Amino acid sequence: MLPRALWDRANGLDTSMYSLTAVVGPAIAGIVVARFGPEAGLLATGGVAAIASLSLVGVHEPVARVDSGASLIGDARAALLYVVRHASLRGLAVTLFLANLGFGVIPVGLPVLVLRHLHGSAANVGQIFAVVGLAGLAAGLLIGRVNTEGRERLLIASCITIQVPTLVLLAFTNSWTMVFAIAVIAGATGSIINVGIFALRQRRTDPAWFGRAFAVSLSLNFAGLPIGSALSGPLLEQSIALPLLLGAAVTAVAAVAALLLIPARAAAG
Fold it and tell me: Do 251 and 163 meet the contact criterion of CB atoms below 8 Å apart?
């Protein structure tokens, strides 16, 4: 829908708005639940989703799509095969699966660190995640002003690399200042990675496959996060440091994978 020259700005804004909703959404939900109960909170969430869906009514796809198959499963299979056979999307899927697998310790490990080791409160946990969101908001707006074309792979690899020492530091810190500083770094690098991912997908995918290929690619990328969280849970019962250090090791592998598996340039033709 937008000209190619504006893709980076749009991706930066998109990432920033996601970070903003990650801060504002839980706060509003907390107020609604506190005043009217959990049922009202769920109804409000459903209502907002319905309103969001209405915003797409009348929007036409700007590019022609590949012909649809006879079934939804067939279309999904075709999209999966497209991603698997596409060197850039395949490399991106492996890289981000590993990165999210390693970083999956954060959603469960950070509350444990705050509540058990720093003797904080649920409010402190919320404040830290709010800082993550605000840092992502600012970073998304800033990186959107940069032309990422030809630099997406290095952008992704470098930001994943930065996340490695943050996980190591988090494993041993007893400082609130350090935790909040790490939250800023995590939020900023996460937004920059997302902009790099979006840009790489857009520039290296056949426009006719945008919808289906993006859906499959996004799912494969994100799949590592819940798995990482699930694996970290039992380990956190024994130690806060071990799962964070394991997450750092897996994240380091992801940084190497970005350089080895994602082609430096799009395939010819």
Answer: yes
Euclidean distance between CA atoms 137 and 187, whole angstroms:
8
With pLDDT > 70 as the criterion, what percentage of the chain qualifies?
93
* Averaged pLDDT for residues 70-84: 84
Q: Which CATH number fits domain 8-54+72-261: 3.40.50.2020, 3.40.1190.20, 3.40.50.300, 1.20.1250.20?
A: 1.20.1250.20
pLDDT in tens, 143-202: 888 888 888 999 999 999 999 999 999 999 989 999 999 999 999 999 999 999 988 988
Q: What CA–CA distance (Å, rounded) separates 247 from 255?
A: 12
User: What is the end-to-end Cα distance of the chain in Å, rounded?
Assistant: 23
Amino acid at 183: A
Confidence of residue 19 (pLDDT cuts 50, 70, 90): confident
Domain boundaries, the chain: 8-54+72-261
Structure confidence at residue 267 (pLDDT): 65
Compute φ and ψ for 40, nearest 5 degrees.
-65, -35
Give dist(CA 37, CA 108) in Å, integer: 25
- Cα 21 to its chain centre, rounded Å, is 14
Nearest Cα to Cα of residue 89 among 80, 101, 102, 98: 80
- Cα(264)–Cα(221) distance, integer angstroms: 19
Provide the 10 A C-beta neighbour count for residue 69.
12
Q: Which of 5-19, 53-67, 163-177 has the highest mean pLDDT?
A: 163-177
- How many Cβ atoms are within 10 Å of 202's Cβ, its own excluded? 18
